[in-house]
## 1
Amino acid sequence: MISILKDAWTIASKDLSNEIKTKQTIGMMVIFSSLVVLIFSFAFDPTNNMVKAVIPGLVWLITVFSGILGLNRSFLSEHENDTLTGLRSAPIDPSSIYLGKVLANFILVTAVQLVSIPVLFLLFDYRFFGKVSWFILVVIIGTLGFIIVGTFLAALSANAKNSEMLLPVLLLPLLSPLLIAGVQATRIILENEMIADAASWIRLMAAYDLLFLAACFFLFEFIMEGS
Amino acid sequence: MKKNTGIIDRLLLFTLIPTVFIALYLIFIWSPVERIMGASQKIFYFHVGSAWVAFLAFGVVGYYSVRVLIKPRLQHHINAGISAEIGVLFTTITLITGMIWGKSSWNTWWTWEPRLATTLILWFIYVAYLFVRKMDGSTEKIARLSAVFGIIGAINVPIVFMAIRWWNTKLHPVVFGEGKNQSGGGIEPDMLVALLFSIFTITVLYAFLMRKGIEIEKMRHIVKRAKSKAIEKLAG
């Protein structure tokens, strides 16, 4: 188990150092998520008071939309240089590839959120009343679930020729329970309602994370097998 | 072997034809007309039957997906795919009949009620499953990938249902059964007979479609193999 985690960290740090060198994916993701905020400000007039109601949903929409860009790259870049064969033939457990990719993608998407969520609040002039710590907790749990399922499906769809199109089609229906829970929990916290109400949603998200982490962890070797 | 499957097919066909007519008779002539909703209530029999078959079909997909991963065999892969296709068909029927029913009884085409939303998301998941099967690559690879997706999709369905149920309880309490006159014991015995019979008929239809679909898919594989063999011969 320790060795799996160690190998996972090696793979994650390889991806991250690669990303730090080129800064291509993360730059695109930040710009794209800011653009989504911009487009939304045209779609929903920010001067309107009603727009406060859609902010919790927007937090998740920009995460998912920009996250899908990064997820697409995480396995396609391996396919382009055929380094996936190298990873596959390495003397490591296939699950450690999965965990490593999850870790790298999670750090990437969190880094993007650090910019995009403040930008969202800024451009929509959103006054924050809730507790920041709870908000961060919800965002972390939700993003983790998104990355767990997303990384798995990115590896699956990377086998197809039209994988950029396939990934969102596969991913979004599977994310629906997580998104419902995430949006509800975020709304309750941002509007400073009862934390107890949010807690049941957070529990649902945590259960989703654990269940899919276990399922994807065991099923990942079937995706990596053969060619 | 070949003869044996023929007998089962014929048996299914000869049970299917009379049961369809009996079911139609029971639904449209024999069963009483609902007092409030009138004739539009008749769609209820088709709606429940196809919803049941849709969930059954997706259960079958999950079952064969697990079997593909345990022991990769072409037969399991084909079974899962055909069942998914029929499942998508019946889910579409369920959604459409549900909308018609909703329009006439609730005066709206769509409400975000747990069962409706779950069915819609289920439809999306299994359309995505069919997309995975349409990927190019070797049959073994596609069998493995689609089986993995089938399992993940099946895990997701109960979570979706729970999430949507909780989501809506914020707005109004969960009501068991569909309205006052449809809940549990409230159903007319004659209606129940017609309902059970129509469910049975649609299940037989599912079995029949399943067998026919598997046969066609197998033929497709045989043709594909013969084609590649012929190409090899011509090239070599």
## 2
Amino acid sequence: MSVLEVRGVSKNFRGLAAISDVSFAIAEGSITSIIGPNGAGKSTMFNLITGYLPPTAGEIRFKEKRITGLPTNRIAELGVARAFQIARPFRDLSVFENVRIGALFGKAGARDVAVTTRRAMELASIAHLAEQPAAALTVGQLRHLEVARAIATRADLLLADEPCAGLNPTETAAMIDVLRQVRKNGVTVVLVEHDMPSVMEVSDRLLVLDAGRLIGDGPPQAVANDPKVIAAYLGTPDAA
Amino acid sequence: MNRTPALIALVIAAAVLLAAGPMVLPPFYVRVGQLMLYSAGLGLAWGILGGFAGYASFGHAAFIGVGAFIAGLVENQFSTLPTALLLPVGLLAAAAACAILSALIAYPILRLRGTFFAIAMLGVSHVCAEVTNNIDFFQGSMGLNFPPIAPAGMDPANFFYELYLAGALLILLTAWQIKRSRFGAGLLSIREDEDTARMLGVPTERYKRTAFVISAVLTGLMGVIYAHSLGYITTDSVYRDDTNLSLIVYSLLGGMGTLFGPVIGAFLLVFITQVILGRLLDFHLFATGLLLVLLILAAPGGVSGLLKRRKTA
């Protein structure tokens, strides 16, 4: 069953088509990476799914319910969470307090806030930092905090925007491990990521965006060898 | 984390001590005490929106004025009621008026952030003052009399002192309950980063509106007590820009967003201006201003921030 369905979605910024007629469905329990050159519309896609921006055309369904046009907090209540590329912690609060906000809010329904907070910190391996102020964390730790806070919302779908950008190989490996753990807990993961080795390693499926169009879709190896995709990244011989 | 019982005991002890104040204090200090408790109540009410949610209003005198004038007008209509019922009727009318006004302006005005919100609220305060002044119905320019409500045999100064204390305690209790609730955590996340808060499922719009209405209603209630203690008010006695400014200063001084910050700030500022500088009238505004600048430069987190820094150091 697909947990997320994007149907014929377009987004124009004034004259510029950031997303043009994109459709895809995300299978429950999968890890899917959206890749593409800078400006391809990857982050815009996340902004549309989370309701941060309204699409110009098309519709988005989450667990078969139409979510297009709903406010961001309603979509979060249904079970969509997002981890930002540039970490946006609540800087004056501790790691624990940050994650607790996710547990207090997020997906609607009963929960044990204390247990949810602790589990999310453990899953993202930042339990040892619980009492640290968020402002004191390193870039890598902040990414983990972003993911922990998102997990604490008990989301069924995690959108992670470049969780590995700017991390060293050790940190990247740790992050990949966290994402695997998240999936193991039944959460569907969609990544936007530039780090190709991580993408190839962790993803079940790749979606390739170029200039707002979906130009590739399939298992990582097949997509990475697709001439259209290579052309999008490196340019075509006759264009050069 | 579990200092809560000790804190509650401390607050109760302080309240009992404060309540006994008028029995031992000379009249001048009863008046200073009135002003301290009134200011603390207003500061706490302001802090529910300004401190907790980070929406610093520069126009909360609007709700003091609306509360006071509506209460006065309604109470004068019910002048046949027993004296003991007049204040409750006035408080109820003021609460309703402030709730309606704040709920109406919440939609457009809470879309603004930071300085823009502050200035828009200043505008609201001035518009309310102009309306009160220029529409005869409100009697703002010629003044509005309030029926005496102090029980016979009790010094009105002591009576109003105790009323202010009751009001301030009610607001403190409300603010405390909010701060420790899920709603309070939501407000905190709005203050920290509103877009992220929404992304995490915090119903930011509803929470901001709720905090705004609660803050406005509580401010209005203090306004009613204030008007009664004056006995006669005009537009200028309740819609005061120095009040608009002071409410921000209390939190800045005591600690923005903390529960006791506005109380500490209000007590401190009133004590400094009324007692220490009270005899230097020419000098007093200058000295207050200078003191504020120095305090804010030296302690951006206010008094609460200083205490916290000492504890962690």
